[in-house]
Design brief:
2 strands; mainly alpha; globular; single chain; 10 helices; two-stranded antiparallel sheet; 2% strand
Length: 304
């Protein structure tokens, strides 16, 4: 039986899908075109932006599509194979998005570090390390989430009790199995490693911006204090991006853990968790568009 609240929630999820996917695809295609064709504006960080927006697009698609179908009362949308494929791809792409956001933060921290910094030597290694990092992110997440394929099945029991993962169409194969808790621990360790690196590089960039601001005030130069370099604008954008990620990450993890360990499962929590996990990849491209020279050039070309 459908309720008006289910329909309203479904409309909200559709708005997320129709906002996040086009936004990420637009930036992905724009960065790829710029990196491959317009060599005069090529920057080493553009492949990282492209990889992040691609991972975000896949995460939003695999996360929201089943929840939208469930909100509008579609039954048996996924069978066993569909559950395994959709949840596996969702988990893998979400993990890749976390890893790439961490790489983006580290990339920018190294880029803006002073020449006499102990991280300066990494600037010359970044161009050759970027693609291997992308491959590593995909491989490590695909290996970690192989367990999803083994343990997830289509939902057969509407009243689920005990520890386990719940989805509108899927569930853990053996509810209450202790191995599920161990798998969840592995995921949390993986995520916390990258989130800790993300926070650490962000704090380093905050310190650099603070020192730059203090120097500008000390010199009493209106030119220095009023003008912000493109690197510092990009740094502030990435700091805002990381802040949003961390906020949504911990909110979603709290909800996921509560749902996992709750004795009696609440189906609506699965939908809320899906919406929360899609918030960061949905707003990510619009944060990246802020003060973005490539986007400004693209939009201005239509006004000429």
């Amino acid at each position: 039986m459908m309720f008006p609240s289910d329909t309203m929630f479904g409309v909200f999820l559709i708005s997320q899908l129709c906002t996040g996917v086009p936004g990420n695809l637009f930036l992905f295609l724009l960065y790829m075109h710029t990196f491959s064709v317009q060599h005069h504006v090529k920057r080493l960080i553009y492949p990282v932006f492209s990889h992040l927006t691609l991972a975000n697009t896949l995460t939003i698609t695999f996360t929201l599509t089943p929840h939208i179908a469930s909100s509008f009362g579609v039954r048996q949308f996924l069978d066993d194979v569909g559950c395994k494929a959709v949840l596996y791809m969702y988990r893998v792409t979400q993990g890749v998005s976390i890893c790439t956001t961490c790489l983006l933060s580290a990339f920018q921290a190294i880029t803006v570090s002073p020449r006499n910094s102990k991280w300066a030597w990494l600037k010359f290694k970044l161009p050759t390390w970027t693609c291997p990092f992308f491959l590593f992110f995909w491989v490590i997440n695909m290996l970690i989430y192989i367990h999803t394929i083994e343990t997830i099945t289509a939902t057969r029991n509407l009243t689920l009790v005990g520890r386990g993962y719940v989805h509108p169409y899927c569930q853990t194969r053996q509810f209450g199995n202790q191995n599920a808790g161990r798998f969840l621990s592995v995921i949390l360790i993986h995520d916390l490693v990258f989130v800790s690196l993300m926070i650490g590089t962000s704090l380093y960039m905050v310190n650099l911006l603070y020192r730059h601001h203090r120097r500008a005030q000390h010199l009493h130069s209106s030119c220095i204090s009023s003008h912000t370099s493109p690197e510092h604008k990009a740094t502030r954008t990435i700091l805002l991006l990381v802040s949003c990620f961390v906020a949504f990450y911990f909110s979603n993890n709290y909800l996921t853990l509560y749902s996992f360990y709750a004795h009696k499962k609440i189906p609506r929590l699965a939908g809320l968790s899906g919406a929360l996990s899609s918030c960061y990849p949905t707003i990510c491209p619009f944060l990246l568009m802020k003060n973005n020279k490539i986007v400004s050039q693209f939009t201005s070309s239509f006004s000429q």
